[in-house]
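User: What would this chain look like folded?
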Amino acid sequence: MKNFLDENFLLNSDTAINLYHNYAKDMPIFDYHNHLDAKQIYEDKQFDNITELWLGQDHYKWRVLRTNGIDEEYITGNRSNKEKFDAFAKTIPYTIGNPMYHWTHLELQRYFGITTVLNDENKDSIYEQCNEMLKKPEFSVRNLLLRMNVAAMCTTDDPKDDLKYHIALKEENFKIKVLPTFRPDNIIHIEKINFIPYIKDIKELGYDIKTIDDVKKYLSERLDFFYNAGCRVSDHGLDQVMYLSATDEQVNTILTKGLNNETLANDELRMYKGYVLSYLGTLYHSKDIVMQYHIGPMRNNSTRMFNQLGADAGFDSINDGSCAVDLSRLLDSMDVSNQLPKTVLYCLNPTDNAVLASMIGNFQGSGIVGKIQFGSGWWFMDTKKGMINQIGDLSSMGLLSRFIGMLTDSRSFLSFPRHEYFRRIVCEEIGNLVENGEYPNDQVMLKEIIEGICYNNVNSYINI
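Assistant: Here's the prediction, encoded as structure tokens.
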């Protein structure tokens, strides 16, 4: 029986051990999608306690706490930081089989050097030990990132953002490149409750949105601003992929209805969203900005808790809607004029893995290595099983060797050991191919493949 979380954790063959320790382990990290705060990086925030740093924004943790019967007061409520930490410590032993158990102890080990497992018995000593260490300068936000060998990272930002902290970090020449990501969901999702308030907000920036040309002007000018601030990646949250070819006149009519808070038919949504997404894709292509589509969540399922806590509080799940037809037509609307940008497609529903793994092969080319990517296991799929399935489907239908690898999608500065978790799984899966005689034990080629998936591929793919 192997020891828990030892140096060969998740590595079950000599080949996997060799690949991880000699090629994967020390590669830099390019975390090209997360939800971290550039202001906290610029100000080099020093967190007061482990609860604020570890539990404060992490809805992954909130979900397991609720499932374990912990009252909301101990999760997002007014209980003390110590009481919230205690509730988490009591819950962790019950997360067997959930990646939360592995992530929790990787983070305790890699940041704090704590090798004992967290539980109700030792929660007080671990809480005090972490808090004492957090007082030290080496536990500031910047130093936490540097400790994990982060070379570059892309936050998630609305087009109206002023990006002053990204710009300040760039001017300061901070060792880690902290780049903004252009995420215009608020102006694309015309049917959502925050669409009209958003239109009012951007009017204060000088954009009076009345026609689709006004929308295009806003997006084009803000993308120029983002690009000059270092943006090389965009992102779109697509609960459902929607595309239907439409004229300017049709889209103007739909936009007018949306601005008047009128209910829109499904085909009207497909026209408006498809038009704007296709237009944006051509802009991204002109600037060599990578386009990301995150496909398939069903958000804010609990009306009661949405009214209490708002969005992104851990009440989302996997949608089962189909995506293939509209996704193909959307991508083709850009590709037909050879203006499809580099694109990363993520699915939240594992039944869509094969759809995306095969879809990316339709639009490769233009002399770009791995131009269209099947993105890493995301959200409910960035588990051991989810990663293995994504790796298997990608390698079966595409080129795993050209894969741009893992990201954290995180709101916590302690999340970067997830890259280690992914790298160990990749080395185990590729090691199995070698051990089974399905690929030669060619160390030169294996080194190139492993280092590519860990860092080199994405570093080439995102031109910074």
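The chain has a mean pLDDT of 97. If you want, I can go into more detail on any region.
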